Amino acid sequence: MLCWLLLRGFLLRCFLLRCFLIFWALLATQVLAAPPRAELLPGANEGDWLLVIEADGQRRSEELSLTPLLRQFAVGRVTMSRVTTEVKSLTRWQIPLHRVAREASQVPSLSLGEEHTPPLPLSASPSSDQDLADSPAEAPRPSPVELQTSVLHQGPLYPGQPFLYQLTLWLPDNMEAPNLSEPVGPGFTIRRLGNDQWESPASLGMPGRLTRKWLLQAKMPGLHPLESPRFQGRMPGQRGASESFSARAATQFVKVDKAPVEPVASSLVLSQQFIPASGVKVGEPIIRILTLVMEGGDGNRVPQLAMPPLPAHMQAKTDGEQQQERYVAKGALRFERQWRQALTADVAGDYPLPALDLPWFNTQSGQIEHAHLPAQILHFAPVPASPADEPAAAGERLLYWVLAILLLRTLWRHWPRWRAFYRLQSELAQREPDSSRWALLSWADLRWGGSHLHLAHLPCHSDPAIGFLLDALDRACFAPPSTSGGEPDWQALGKGLCAFETFAIAYSLRKLAWVHS
């Protein structure tokens, strides 16, 4: 029993000693951890620096506050990286700076979580200080933004050939009233493309990125300048004041080669269609549709197709022309043009249409190619001969019999409906609301079939003019006298209903009913 008590006490003391050593090691690690380190490296131009900040451990991007820098510097794109080894880990920030405030003499201390980076003095060469002292006026301050432009095209460029111009803009998250103009290039036709792409800042104080694209076409060969769009905005300053900034990327010079005589494109397809394709007789037209589809070229430079002479006894008349142009993707501009012809022949037979050939310059291969349409043979059938005419007297007698049979058949078939329509017109002429309503519903059953119980359900009610008159008849039948709003226009209602019956018969029946009323 005594041995067990001694062993348990020994194990307890070992456990407490181990916990104490672990706690002391953790405390020593926190106390002996190095503070954040900062280094300032000179940039390629005067007034440019690269601020490098390192801190032990794995840090988050939002722990570093860049707000003090924005008061005196234009901050470029911030790069953050983490380095981890077996014995140590650290986080590194690389921050491009450009001095905006002339009186700025040092990089201020930045807060990194609960710690702060040391302030760093700015080291300027004596020559640059002398230049600033000798300049009579203060140099314009650059904008705290970063602009980058690029021409997205490979290989030779010819007039009319479309290409993409892209602008990438990095903006601080506290920029106010941003405004971006359009690129300027007298030697180009410039069109905006699609919507802007915006990537929000990863954390507070980091810049966001805006991407905008344009579709350009050179007007003539040569070396043409292309000025970047100008960005303007305001940055909040001290004591609530704001400072205006303006920036523009470097001007690019685009070389445009002299185009060949043939149309320039990345692809060109020529096709044709005949409507109808067969079964056409002499004197009837065949519609010929020629379609040209071109990508990566200028549709305004496509010449008219040279039509070879047609065979004898065949004529061609222009039946219209249409064209459209739209952006496809990745700088491809699709142009489509259609020509229509009406082909007719005076004599039956087969008519060969000559082949068509359009040479064009392929920018993908750098060679002249041909869009070819083979020869086609169109067949026009003769008009069938009409049978010999019968004697005129026999033909007239037969016509009279046919007309008489049709008239009797029409009278037998439609007489109940026409009689109901005459009764309807008689009731309307008598200006009797209830009798007119029932006569109208009876005629509607014969006119449109089925059973109709309400005037609002009649097919003719969809006509605004008739619908208004039918509603007035309903009010005259069912509404109290004080709220009826007066009687309907009986003449207008009787005349309007004639349009829904056989007009000549209906007009005669209406005249007859109103005369006898």
Question: Which key phrases capture this entry?
Answer:
Immunoglobulin-like, five-stranded antiparallel beta sheet, four-stranded antiparallel beta sheet, 28 strands, 26% helix, BatD, Protein BatD
Verbal overview:
- By secondary structure, this protein is of the alpha+beta class.
- The chain folds into four domains: 58 residues, no CATH class; 111 residues, Immunoglobulin-like (Sandwich), CATH 2.60.40.740; 116 residues, Sandwich (Immunoglobulin-like), CATH 2.60.40; 112 residues, no CATH class.
- The protein has eight helices and 28 strands.
- The strands form nine sheets. Strands 1, 2, 3, 4 and 5 form a five-stranded antiparallel sheet that branches. The protein has a four-stranded antiparallel sheet with strand order 10-11-14-13, with no helix packed on it. The protein has a four-stranded antiparallel sheet with strand order 20-22-24-23, with no helix packed on it.
- Strand 13 and strand 14 form a beta hairpin.
- Helix 4 runs antiparallel to helix 7.
- The longest helix is centred in the last third of the chain and has 39 residues.
- The radius of gyration is 45 Å and the shape is extended.
- The termini are far apart.
- 22% of the residues are buried.
- About 5% of the residues have low confidence.
- This is Protein BatD.
- It comes from Aeromonas lusitana.
